[in-house]
Amino acid sequence: MSDTHILIERPAERPGVLVLRFNRPDKKNAITRGMYQTLTDAIRAANGDPDIRAIAFLGSPGAFSAGNDMADFMAFAMGGSLGREVLDFLDALSNAEKPLVSGVDGLAIGIGTTIHLHCDMTFATPRSLFRTPFVDLALVPEAASSLLGPLVMGHQRAFAMFAAGEGFSAEDARDAGLIWQVVPEEELEEKVLAAAAGLAAKPPQALRIARDLIRKGRPDVAGRIAEEAAHFSAQLKSAEAMAAFQKFMARKG
């Protein structure tokens, strides 16, 4: 399955790099079911393609991603589950075999933030904002962020982001260990693609082993994703979630 809101690029000048670019700027790159499926298919195909040695995620000027598309999200809510496409994407993301590099300019909300916990190097511009308003919607963290967040940031910062819903600036995110570098807006794409190309040019077996060793320090990511999804699904059916959604939609209207 493909989706025009995800551009899949293999730049000739960046051999070995696969670029997955959010391309729905009118909706601040809010992610639909089709977009999730396209991302999943691309990551899984890259696992088996020896010519792809690194994957880069990019958004649009002013928005990496505003999180889940609200129409799709309300459909999830009515169905009482996180959605197969979302869970398939989280599985593909957490099990990606190639190094993941990402670049953020502007909004990074919900999954637009938690995706970077699975990336190996993330760059962001000074105007970026990382925020996960899960609890504000009477929901819970996802993408194993309740596990990876404290490991990366420590308890206090992770609680501030994933429970209190505090927004993090690019500098906050760098200091917390969520991202690697803060770079000027006009340099973001070049920095991301250069980093991905640099990884793609390294001896692939040595890089794979090094990455696997570094990531093996993490506890059971798949188990935490499943645990979060169960709580998420239960909360979707709750009265407090319905009230939070109604309040949110009224504010948007």
Count of domain modules: 1
What is the third-level CATH name, the topology?
2-enoyl-CoA Hydratase, Chain A, domain 1
Which CATH architecture would you pick?
A: Alpha-Beta Complex
CATH H-level superfamily title = 2-enoyl-CoA Hydratase, Chain A, domain 1
Which strand order spans the largest sheet, edge to edge or round the barrel?
1-2-3-5-7-10
Protein name: Enoyl-CoA hydratase/carnithine racemase
GO molecular function: delta(3)-delta(2)-enoyl-CoA isomerase activity
Subcellular location: Peroxisome
InterPro entries: ClpP/crotonase-like_dom_sf, ECH/Chromodomain_protein, Enoyl-CoA_hydra/iso
Describe this structure as you would to a colleague.
The structure is a single chain. This protein has about 250 residues and is of the alpha/beta class. It has one domain (about 5-185, about 220-250): Alpha-Beta Complex (2-enoyl-CoA Hydratase, Chain A, domain 1), CATH 3.90.226. The protein contains eleven helices and ten strands. It has helices at about 35-45, 70-80, 85-95, 110-115, 145-155, 155-160, 170-175, 190-200, 205-215, 220-235, 240-250, and strands at about 5-10, 15-20, 55-60, 65, 100-105, 105-110, 120-125, 130, 170, 180. The protein has a six-stranded mixed beta sheet, with helices on both faces. It has a four-stranded mixed beta sheet with strand order 4-6-8-9. Helix 3 (about 85-95) packs antiparallel against helix 10 and helix 5 crosses helix 10. The longest helix is centred in the last third of the chain and has 16 residues, at about 220-235. The chain is globular, with a radius of gyration of 17 Å. It starts with 5 loop residues before the first strand and ends with a helix. The model has no long low-confidence stretch (mean pLDDT about 95). Keywords: Isomerase, Peroxisome. This is Enoyl-CoA hydratase/carnithine racemase. One of its GO terms (molecular function) is delta(3)-delta(2)-enoyl-CoA isomerase activity.
